[in-house]
Structures are given as structure tokens and as C-alpha cells.
From TrEMBL:
All residue ranges annotated as the Sulfatase N-terminal domain in the record: 30-372
Signal peptide segment: none
Taxonomic classification: Bacteria, Pseudomonadati, Verrucomicrobiota, Verrucomicrobiia, Verrucomicrobiales
Highest taxon listed in the record's lineage: Bacteria
Official protein name in the record: Sulfatase N-terminal domain-containing protein
């Protein structure tokens, strides 16, 4: 593994980006599609040992580039989505642990805050999002509204809401959050497509429209995505489509056509249906003859959830998170290392792989790099372009990245070293905190010990201090990339555990 260390904000980080930028200016701007699965681990795809067939994802890997060391910014939904879309770590916002659960959760992206969509729109793109948003919808509420209610019955669905169309997207069709969080209603642009009239429960009870069924969402999202591609392919502008799926997150509800298709039960069936959506997108690109200059990226918002019954899957030979430690919600690798593939036939070498330590927060700067946009000092403050890596997988330079658990615990990764600022998972797997007598933090050599079995904290005090100092710098500067210091939205507490 190539290892390059950066301890100061130095301009070297921008050199490779600049080279890539120049090389593309003479070419047409590509269409860009980002498909974001929900709660899916590195072992859930068949080309990495998965036991459920994922032919579309296998095709992407065969025709594109696999990022074998790619990470979400957090190990749960809402924060990892924020990092992807804004190029900024979620812990700089008011959301410093957990996720959004209710209709009363206000939009996390601030008014006027730059997003990948607004960046691309300013550079001539049509922009759309189809699927699960989960960063807060600004609903209007009835006079008798209860801020603590979670069922959605106090929302005034007849009035417009603040949706992704306020964040640079020309078009939105999707749902507020996960499929187990009310209300169960589709939203188009800034309004609900219908007024809920019944109560349904896909784990949590809540307001729903009569025709909303959780097991039909993937089919709906696939159809809307293909419609978007077909329409925009006819226009003289490139397009950006963000496709955040609801699967294989709970409820694990494959549609009737996919039941029994895998050998590992409903979870495997749901993986196969998720892969089918990817296949529908690829077919639409082929039919419109625009595959060559379309960048398609597939990734997921965090690792597999224990709700999938990981232990039972492992007994059947399927390891959702591979041999990594932990799962969704954790600071361990199983929580945030995710399958990531990029296909762009015009630029990316087929069947290639890269070991670049990549954070999905890098998507923002990558898009800016591709279209030749100059980022403002306030934008994408934690994002580093991987466009040079798309051109050459051997280009693996990346400053240290930061990961965050559901409990708000931090980890920083530099080269082979990973320092967790907690003594346990910081999430759902045990131990959640340091056991009595154990070191307060954890230091792992991920090259020698990718499963994080041996804590090297006491043996390497200098490395611990170095990474601790760098993490404090990232917090204090309000950014982790070169540039003028910025303000965080709230006070950030790095050390949350006692003892």
C-alpha cells in the first residue's frame, strides 16, 4: 500500500487536481449519476464474495474502477448523506450524533449552502434526485401540531415544503427518509403527490397514502430514474442524477417478483432487487447511447445493519461486511468502509482498482474538478478530488480522512494508521465503550490488521499524539483541506467518553 503523510495544509493536494482539470476542458462535460444504496456492506456484492447475484454491479466493476478503501463520513444515514452532497463533514453541523427520525427534523443543509447539485447546476447541468432524501424536509404543519409527534398526521400536505429543490436540484421525486419512518408518502418537487388518508406501519406507524407500499419503492424509483435519463438525454445539457435507494435497509421487503430469487433469504432477494435498479439505469444509458461519457458511481451510505441478521447470513456463507469488524453505526471499519465503483468509459480503465483512501465527502470536489469549476473558500471544505485517480488508479494521494459513529465518536485515518477517539465501537456492537483497565482510545494498523483485532495505542504514543493534534487542527480550522479557516456551526466535543 502506498502511504503518503500530510501534517500541514499544503498546496500539493491541488496539483493532481489541476492536471486532471486541464485534461478535461477540451472534452464534453460528462453526465454524472450517483447511486447510493442504504445499509449495504463490502461483502454484499457478488464480485467480492457475496452469495446473492448482483450482475449489474459486477458489470460496473468489470467496466469501471473499484475503490477498495472507500468510506462514508459517518456510519449512519443522515450524516453520511450530508457529507456526500456538501463536501463537508456532518459533525461541523448541529447533527453531531444519530440521524433524523421525524417530520419535524428541519433541513440539515442550510439555506444557500453549496451542494453538488447547485455546483453542477451553476455549470450548465440539469439536476435531479430520485429516492430517499433523509436530510430533513421543511414541512408546514397544522395549527394543532405537536413537535414531538413522529407519525406525520400533523403535517399540512396541501402546502409546499422545503425539499431538495431548495438545494440545487431542478427535480425531486422521493420520500422524506427511510422506509420505516413516517410519513409514507411520495413527494414530487416541493409537494406531496397525495394527501395521506390511512395509517400504515413498516415498523413505525404513521400517515400514509392508500397506494403507498414499501415493497414497490424500488420499482417506482427505477421508473422515475429511467424517465429522467430518457428525458434529459434528448436535451443539449449534461445531467446529474442522484439516486439514493431505500434498500437493503429495513423493512427488508423485496417485491413479489424477487422473493426467493437468492439462496440466502429475503435479505439476499432485496440485494438482488437493488442490483436490478442499477441495471435499469445502465440499460437506459445504453439505449440512449450516452454510456461512454457518463460517470456512474455506486456506493452505500454505511455498512450492513445487524437488522439484516448478520449472524444468520454468515452461517449461510454470506458475509455482508466481509471480514471487517463491526457494522452499521460503529466506528469500526464495518460501519463505514463501503463498496464503491466508478464507471466512465471515456476516462476510467475497465477492470481497474485503486487503493486510494477515499471518503465519499470527496464527491463534491471531484465534480468541481471534472467541470472545471473553481470552489469558493467556503465550499467543500473537507473534499479532495479523486478525478486524478479516475484517470490513473495509481494516484492514491489523500490527506487523512475522518469518520464518525452514531454515538458521535470520532476516528481519523492516515495511511495505514487509524486512531479511534473512544475505547469501543461508539455504536451498536460490543463493547460500546472501553472496558475497565483497557486504553481509553484505539490505534490500529489497518495494513497488518484490517479486522482491527489488536489495539496498538500504548505501544505508539507518538503516533497517537500526532493524529490527535491533526484531528484538533481539523476541528479548529473548520476544514481539513488547504484554505482560510471556516466556522463550524456548533461547538464540537472531540472526546465524549469518560475514563
Amino acid at each position: 500500500m502506498a502511504v503518503i503523510y500530510f501534517m500541514k495544509f499544503i498546496p500539493l493536494l491541488t496539483i493532481a487536481s489541476a492536471v486532471g482539470l486541464v485534461s478535461l476542458r477540451a472534452a464534453d462535460k460528462p453526465n454524472i449519476i450517483f447511486i447510493f444504496a442504504d445499509d449495504m456492506g463490502v461483502g454484499d456484492v457478488s464480485h467480492t464474495t457475496g452469495k446473492a447475484a448482483t450482475p449489474a454491479l459486477d458489470r460496473l466493476a468489470k467496466e469501471g474502477m473499484r475503490f477498495t478503501d472507500a468510506h462514508t463520513t459517518a456510519s449512519v444515514c443522515t450524516p453520511s448523506r450530508y457529507g456526500l452532497i456538501t463536501g463537508r463533514y456532518n459533525w461541523r453541523t448541529r447533527l453531531q450524533k444519530s440521524v433524523f427520525f421525524t417530520p419535524h427534523d428541519k433541513p440539515l443543509i442550510k439555506k444557500g449552502e453549496s451542494t453538488v447539485a447547485s455546483l453542477l447546476k451553476e455549470n450548465g447541468y440539469n439536476t435531479g434526485v430520485v429516492g430517499k432524501w433523509h436530510m430533513g424536509i421543511g414541512w408546514q404543519f397544522k395549527p394543532e401540531s405537536n413537535p414531538k409527534s413522529e407519525d406525520g398526521w400533523d403535517v399540512d400536505y396541501s402546502k409546499p415544503a422545503v425539499t431538495p429543490t431548495a438545494n440545487g436540484f431542478d427535480y425531486f421525486y422521493g420520500i422524506q427518509a427511510s422506509l420505516d419512518m413516517a410519513p409514507y408518502v411520495y413527494i414530487e418537487n416541493d409537494k406531496a403527490v397525495a394527501i395521506p388518508t390511512v395509517t400504515k406501519a413498516f415498523f413505525r406507524k404513521g400517515a400514509a397514502t392508500q397506494d403507498f407500499e414499501a415493497n414497490q419503492c424500488l420499482k417506482v424509483f427505477a421508473g422515475k430514474s429511467v424517465d429522467f435519463i430518457n428525458q434529459k438525454a434528448k436535451e443539449d445539457k449534461p445531467f446529474f442524477l442522484y439516486l439514493p435507494l431505500t434498500s437493503p435497509h429495513t423493512p427488508i421487503v423485496p417485491s413479489k417478483a424477487w422473493l426467493g430469487k437468492s439462496s440466502i433469504g429475503k435479505y439476499g432477494d432485496f440485494l438482488m432487487e437493488t442490483d436490478w435498479v442499477v441495471g435499469q439505469v445502465l440499460e437506459a444509458l445504453d439505449e440512449n447511447k450516452i454510456s461512454e461519457n457518463t460517470l456512474v458511481i455506486f456506493s452505500t451510505d454505511n455498512g450492513c445493519s445487524p437488522a439484516a441478521k448478520i449472524g444468520e447470513l454468515v452461517k449461510m456463507g454470506h458475509k455482508p461486511n466481509g471480514d471487517l469488524r463491526g457494522h452499521k453505526a460503529d466506528i469500526y471499519e464495518g460501519g463505514h468502509r463501503v463498496p464503491t465503483i466508478a464507471r466512465w468509459p471515456k476516462v476510467v480503465k475497465a477492470g481497474s482498482k485503486t487503493q486510494r483512501i477515499t471518503s465519499l465527502v470527496d464527491f463534491y470536489a471531484t465534480c468541481a474538478d471534472i467541470v472545471g469549476a473553481e470552489q469558493k473558500v467556503t465550499e467543500g471544505v473537507d473534499s479532495v478530488s479523486f478525478y486524478p485517480t479516475l484517470e490513473d488508479p495509481a494516484k492514491v494521494d489523500r490527506a487523512p480522512i475522518v469518520m464518525h459513529s452514531i454515538g458521535g465518536m470520532f476516528a481519523i485515518r492516515q495511511g495505514l494508521w487509524k486512531l479511534c477517539f473512544c475505547g469501543g465501537s461508539g455504536g451498536w456492537s460490543t463493547p460500546r465503550k472501553a472496558k475497565k483497565g483497557d486504553p481509553k482510545w484505539q490505534l490500529f494498523d489497518l495494513e497488518a490488521d484490517p479486522a482491527e483485532t489488536t489495539n496498538l495505542y500504548t505501544e505508539n504514543p507518538e503516533k497517537v499524539e500526532q493524529l490527535h493534534a491533526l484531528m484538533k487542527q481539523y476541528i479548529q480550522q473548520g476544514r481539513s483541506t488547504p484554505g482560510a479557516a471556516q466556522k463550524n456551526d456548533a461547538e464540537i466535543v472531540l472526546i465524549k467518553e469518560k475514563g
